[in-house]
Amino acid sequence: MKEIQPDNENLWERYAETKDIAIRNQIIEKYSYLVKIIALKIRGVYEQYGDVDDVINEGIIALIDIIDKFDISKNVKFETYATIRVKGAIIDYVRKQDWTPRKVKTDAKILSQAEKELNIKLGRTPNDNEIAEFLQIDMEEYNQIVRNTLGTSIMSFEELVGEANLRDREIKYDYELPEDIYETKELSKVLKESINQLKEKEKLVISLYYKEEIKLKDISKILNISNSRASQIHSMALEKLKKSIKEYLQDKI
């Protein structure tokens, strides 16, 4: 077992023996910073629909449950274990809120249909100005629609890889691993294989957006396509990845 600070070890031992609420509150106070870091890190996913304080509160509730269930006899670093669990709880909470407004979903369908019609009419992929003109809206409104529809895809990606990627970075193999950590490592492998099976343009958009952190509008310029088309490629790629993950999970049942 890795060495930890005596006062920290004593705190955990006393709580394990007594389940004293006052001791638990000390532990919560000690690790509450993890919740704030995670909530702020994925703020872009929910900030236009939900309040960060509500998300942090949900994370604190999860932290309390994690503390109650944490087994100090396992040779696992609590910070790593808690980060994994809190992030998973926050993502699950955000997903269940269904904060995507009906108008955003409707606009996404209208945008997709407009591009399909123009593609047939022009015999090529339309650019952003042509789509906006077809819909009789200005570029500011058009770009806002694209940004809003992209937000729903970002949440889907967080659901797919957020926890798995976090574990890949932070889990070490010099202590006993819980079964769920092994399963997530396996899930991460399946996801990576699924990404490799995407079409080249889909793979490129995923890589540029999430790995290189290039904005969608810049990706559209790199690929010489409209913002709307880049968003559609992004969404289609995520749908394929979600399908692969669902099939994998069904096989595990």
Please name the defining characteristics of this protein.
253 residues, mainly alpha, Rna Polymerase Sigma Factor, Chain: A, Butyryl-CoA Dehydrogenase, subunit A, domain 3, 12 helices, 79% helix, elongated, disordered N terminus
Can you characterise this structure?
The chain is an all-alpha fold. It folds into two domains: 1-99, RNA polymerase sigma factor, region 2, helix turn helix motif (Rna Polymerase Sigma Factor, Chain: A), CATH 1.10.1740.10; 100-253, PhyR, sigma-like (SL) domain (Butyryl-CoA Dehydrogenase, subunit A, domain 3). It has helices spanning 6-18, 21-41, 43-46, 52-69, 78-97, 102-122, 128-135, 139-170, 179-196, 200-211, 216-223, 227-252. Keywords: Cell projection, Cilium, DNA-binding, Flagellum, Sigma factor, Transcription, Transcription regulation. This is RNA polymerase sigma factor for flagellar operon FliA.
Categorize the overall geometry: elongated
CATH homologous superfamily grouping of the largest domain: PhyR, sigma-like (SL) domain
Q: Give the structural class.
A: mainly alpha
Q: Give the number of DSSP strands.
A: 0
Helix content: over 70%
| Major sheet characteristics | none
The CATH C-level class name of the largest domain: Mainly Alpha
Rg result: 22 Å
Low-confidence stretches: 1-6, 162-183
CATH topology of the largest domain: Butyryl-CoA Dehydrogenase, subunit A, domain 3
Summed up, the domain count is 2
Number of helices: 12
> Whole-Å distance between the termini?
34 Å
Helix-strand pattern, N to C? HHHHHHHHHHHH
Average pLDDT, all residues: 76
User: Can you name the CATH architecture of the largest domain?
Assistant: Up-down Bundle
**Strand fraction:** under 5%
